[in-house]
Amino acid sequence: MMLKPVKNWLKTRFPALATYWRWLSRKATLLYFIKNRRSLLKALSRRYSQADDHSVYFLFVYRGRFPHRLSRSVTKQVCSNCQIVSELDYEAGRLSVPQGQNTWVCYVLSDMVLAPNALCVLGQAISRYDDALALYCDHVERSAWYRYAPSVKPAWSPDYYKAFDYIGPALWLQEAQFKAAALTPSEYLCSLPSGAVKHLPLPLVTTYGGTTKESSSRNDYSAEYTNTGTVSVIIPTRNAVHLLKPCVESVRRTVGNLDVELIVIDNQSDCENTLGYLHELSTQPNTRVLRYNQPFNFSAMNNFAVREAKGEVVCLLNNDTEAISNGWLESLVHSALQPGVGCVGAKLYYPDGRVQHAGVVLGFGGGADHAFKFASNHESGYMNRLVTPQNYLAVTAACLAVRKSVFLEVGGLDEQLTVAFNDVDFCLRVVDAGYRNVWLPQAQMLHHESPSRGADDTPEKSARFQQELTILKQRWERYIANDPAYSPWLAKTRHDFAFRRDSIGLSAASLR
Length: 512
What we know:
alpha/beta, Spore Coat Polysaccharide Biosynthesis Protein SpsA, Chain A, 8-stranded mixed beta sheet
């Protein structure tokens, strides 16, 4: 117990130690992953030791030298329904695939090893999901010095994959459909509907020497949408002119050539300086001040403003935020106008430069909380997830863009949730309506977080928070138990995507 104050004092005096302790902590939790993986693979071996061959046939296509490690691991499989062929033989059709087989193909990007009975597990997964056209699993990269780099992945995240190949080598494609499409594996994967791509959160593949993962600029939507129309930026406020003014000025300074309508919602302000500034704003072009003369209700205020908004896209923005990157709003709007996209969120920072929001993970704190909270602004995050666009179930409404039509389609924010979790509930209803939510790291904001309303530090506020948390749990228990943007191998007691320290069973690592 005496070590904790000493460690905190050292971290204050020597900031570099904070980074070192985070690294050391992640290395420690990695040992739990290795232990869990070993136990899980043993359980799978016992489960499939007497398994019969499935009707699924696997083709491993390699380029260059023959994958000897893969070949040795294949000979140890209970299910021997596979074949290793060169890319030239595969393209020339020189194969000996049995008739009537459901054939799946995997491109071998590096020397890889299959876990015991991996083919039986994959075959069962494919048989379970007869609508699947692509399947990927988790994998572990192992260096010559026995260093492990596990890649435990989210469920299918198309915006993440377009920007960064997070799937790597552990990908299988339904061969008949893939050949008929005449596309590269990446192009084919991006062309599939979301329900046709399945994730198996089991580390069934080990690669040696690393795999190539390249970032791309395919998430640049500006080339596809040159005319965004009017964008309505909605900012609720009560007094706090010292926050509102920098917020408004930063928006105007960074929106570029967008046609922006600025809507400020005045919630019973009584400060003379604030009222004077609101009057000044009301006289400026493309700016409106709406009066909301009711007790504070974040949901009701924004619903009222969205109904009044003229823009095709609305951006909900807290009065305690400041734009720190040019083009932030343009990025959010272009993403929100993509087919199938619902809510789009930004990357938020605390005033000291640490990360405050990089997406929302369900299950953190028993309800929901922000991913990578308190991370350094120099970190790239686990699997580049702090610097790569990706899909989350929810993003914070401190800075959230969405088409007005989508907002109204799902009924807006729930006014029963006056302060907390209204944004999470809204995003989940958008997901259930068939849209996908996106988080963009290039849209960056400073967030002072709740200085106007204050913290939930009174009995009344604590009771209200617990009531809203209960509503969230009752409505969205299935997502809290299993957030598809998060891996069951990762702990929900930490924000840095560290591996869980308790055991993971087959039930936790179920298909999704």
